[in-house]
Amino acid sequence: MSRAALLVLADGRFPAGGHAHSGGAEPAVGAGRVRNAEDLADFCRGRLHTTGLTAAALAAAAAHGHDPLALDEAADARTPSPALRAVARRLGRQLMRAARATWPSGELDALAQARPRGVHQPVVLGLTARAAGLGPQDAAHCAAYEAVSGPATAVVRLLSLNPFDATAVLARLAPELDHVAELAAAAARGSIDELPAASAPLLDITAEAHAGWPVRLFAS
Fold it and tell me: Which residues in the chain land under pLDDT 50?
């Protein structure tokens, strides 16, 4: 395992397209549910333990060696919002391009050929971690961190929130992030049907509304 590879994969500057997405933070700010650092912490905590856990488990399962096509179908079943399914596949395509250039892999090539229209991003993330020599828990950590770092970065831009305050929110969530990654990695050792399917209905609802906004800063 390469800890350096983990840092590269988790780096927000890795060209996978995540910077253009708010993870539901933009509609939450628009609705007045996120107004300050305390609200951001609540939002990120809720996202981490729901969609974050689900994404982390899918990523861990892909890194563990489960069939990525079956995992893609499982991700579809766990994503009721058509808007979020489209986003997940778009991000998956972008990550796939970056991953194949960074860590060439026959498994990534085969998946790209099998699903030319894109695969859910957590599945690609897990297979990318596998190609980089990382394990299931590493993949789970990346997915869990993405679940909270994206909204935190977005809220800094949306509210002109002090970046120090946003970073402090992420730092305080670190123990919970570790716990979610451990749960996800443990679940990945079982069958695909038993992977977590934690949901956040309000994120699904607001994603559908946000997709119809005529003017928005983020793609999702």
Answer: none
